[in-house]
Amino acid sequence: MSRKIQIYNTLTRKKEIFNPILENHVGMYVCGPTVYGDPHLGHARPAITFDVVFRYLKHSGYKVRYVRNITDAGHLENDADEGEDKIAKKARLEQLEPMEIVQFYTISYHKAMDALNCLPPSIEPRATGHIIEQIEMVQKILKNGFAYEVNSSVYLDVKKYNASYPYGTLSGRNIEDTLEGTRALDGQSEKKSSVDFAIWKKANPEHIMRWDSPWGEGFPGWHMECSAMSEKYLGKNFDIHGGGMDLVFPHHEAEIAQSNACNNCNPVNYWMHNNMITIDGKKMGKSLGNFINLEEFFIGNHAKLDRAYSPMTIRFFILQAQYRSTIDFGNEALQAAEKGFTKLMNAMGTLENLKHSDHSTYDINELEKNCYDAMDDDFNTPILIAHLFDGVRIINSVKDGKESLTASDLSKMQKLFSDFVTDILGLISAKESGENDLTDEVMELVLKLRGNAKKNKDFSTADLIRDELEKAGIQIKDSREGSSWEIK
RNA sequence: GGUAUCGUGGCCGAGUGGCUAGGCAGUGGUCUGCAACACCAUCUACAGCAGUUCGAAUCUGCUCGAUACCUCCA
Q1: How many CA atoms lie within 13 A of A158 on its CB side?
Q2: Are A337 and A205 in the same domain?
Q3: A267 and A283 inside one domain
Q4: Residues A475 and A370 in one domain
Q5: Under a CB-based contact definition with an 8 Å cutoff, are residues A72 and A127 in contact?
Q6: Is the CB of A361 under 7 A from strand B?
Q7: Which residues have C-beta within 8 Å of that of residue A151, sequence separation ≥ 6?
Q8: Protein residue at shortest CA distance from C1' of B25
Q9: Are A171 and A253 a contacting pair, CB within 8 Å?
Q10: Which end of chain A has fewer surrounding CB within 10 Å, N or C?
Q11: Residue A480: CB less than 7 A from any atom in strand B
């Protein structure tokens, strides 16, 4: 491969040239959703971010195994005072089986990801399907002397671990600071130190989800699943681990510790973290009351939303920001994104029927280089999109006869847009998904009738047709060559 | 309090030590039966203060502000 992809590595806090462990192959693990609630905007960002990474690596010729887990064993609830397993709590609330909840929300997650045109990962393992692997890992860590059992729970001994491996390198902390930052706590804890974390937890009687283990009935600690499943499918040391920035500490830090403690091997070469989505400048969260789920976006049913926004508008909006920046959602910004997206998609359509000429007034190779450079620079999609809009201007100008492209340049341009817009950014027009032959035929007839009316200077009929179609969500566009239509 | 990230024009968002990113909105044109689309031109900018430099929005320091995480509670 002649091109070099640079990835910002959270571990080193700088951009590094990406070199896979195995030539032409990439192993990538991304933290997936906890399926205990509706898929929301917070799920969309990492899914889209790493979907584009997945697509671009594949486009660049790598064979990629993309693993994204489904957390169905349940993590702790942040704001829980009861200390119940997230999933068990929801189950009790709704009088359902835990796995019924999990099934329901897994399906709705998949539907939302599909709507956002995120490719399914290569493997989508579930935590509950890998209890044995997690128990085995806990046993190895115990055997290696980096954990201890207390009262049927097992904790990772972070101080002991830190003597052999540096703890806190990913999040830029050290144990002393962490201990300092922990305010005077009880002393009642069964843990040796407040920095220790559970890798296996005893289940209290009210716990519905529980498994037998060498330490009694319980469930895996909340960081175990990712360590166990990433090792199982990608190996002890793999290329890329992704997730939201909020997971850097403690989740990913714990994963590193667990893997080292178990395998004496640093698990991940490149750590990638997408930034948060904010609403009115604040992180979106249930407790803040600014929580918008994806369904509400698609339908427009939320107090914060002026109207509905299509999945592709959301996708485009997210891609207009670099993945390491926060994105603030607002109606004005969303509507701007929607317009920009429509402009891009219209140009895609125009490009299909463009006429070539005997010389070019524009350098396609330069544009292509700019596009690759943008993506190679830590997947800089906003820069890529800016360059694509350069192409859009050219496409429209060629149509107007103000610029020209040779046949070979034109087909290059078509390939460029197909590669970058459709395959890499994963943007598809609403028309593509909602169109059928019958609609085409009917619209052809309608446009013919309107054309006749215009010829007869019957503009009131022509305008009536246009206005009514507009109400139905179809935009008529007149040009010298005739009229065309598109679904808005 | 600790750690990290960040503060760019009406809105959203890139970016580099010197050469107007881009999208949306605004303004003026061209096109058009009118409109939409499109094209051309154009107006708003780099939180504040000090320093380094021939030159800084880009480097350094300080100030102010914003956001995230700080782990055991099951």
Answers
A1: 22
A2: no
A3: no
A4: no
A5: yes
A6: no
A7: A190, A202
A8: A336
A9: yes
A10: N
A11: yes
Selection from A367, A358, A368, A352 nearest residue A404 by Cα:
A358
Q: Is the peptide bond before A250 cis (omega within 30 degrees of 0)?
A: yes
What is the domain count for chain A?
A: 3
Distance CA A383, CA A272 (A): 19
B strand bases under 7 Å from protein CB: 1-6, 10-15, 21-25, 31-40, 66-74
CB neighbours of A249 closer than 8 A, spacing ≥ 6?
A170, A171, A173
Same domain, yes or no, for A223 and A369? no
Q: Which two tokens stand for residue A111?
A: 């539907």
Mean pLDDT of A109-131: 94
pLDDT tens track for A142-179: 999 999 999 899 999 998 998 898 888 888 777 766 66
CATH of the domain at A163: 3.40.50.620
User: Which among A49, A48, A52, A62 has a CA at the least distance from the CA of A18?
Assistant: A62
The 10s digit of each residue's pLDDT in A309-345 is 889 999 999 998 889 888 888 888 888 888 889 889 9
Are A208 and A36 contacting, i.e. CB atoms less than 8 angstroms apart? Answer: no
A231 or A293: whose pLDDT is higher?
A231
Is A250's CB less than 7 Å from nucleic acid strand B?
yes
A287 strand B contact, CB < 7 Å? no
In three-state secondary structure terms, A140 is helix
Parent domain of A424: 278-431
How far is A389 from A369, CA to CA, in rounded Å? Answer: 15
B2 C1' – A165 CA distance, angstroms? 22
Residues A365 and A481 in one domain: no
Verify that A481 and A377 share a domain, yes or no.
Answer: no
Closest residue by C-alpha to C1' distance, nucleotide B66: A281
The average confidence (pLDDT) of chain A is 85
> Does residue A88 lie in a domain region?
yes
Q: What are A3-25's pLDDT values in tens digits?
A: 789 888 888 888 888 999 999 99
Report the distance separating Cα A271 and Cα A29, nearest Å: 10
In a shared domain, residues A200 and A330: no
User: Is the Cβ atom of A393 within 7 Å of strand B at any atom?
Assistant: yes
Query: Are residues A65 and A131 part of one domain?
Result: yes
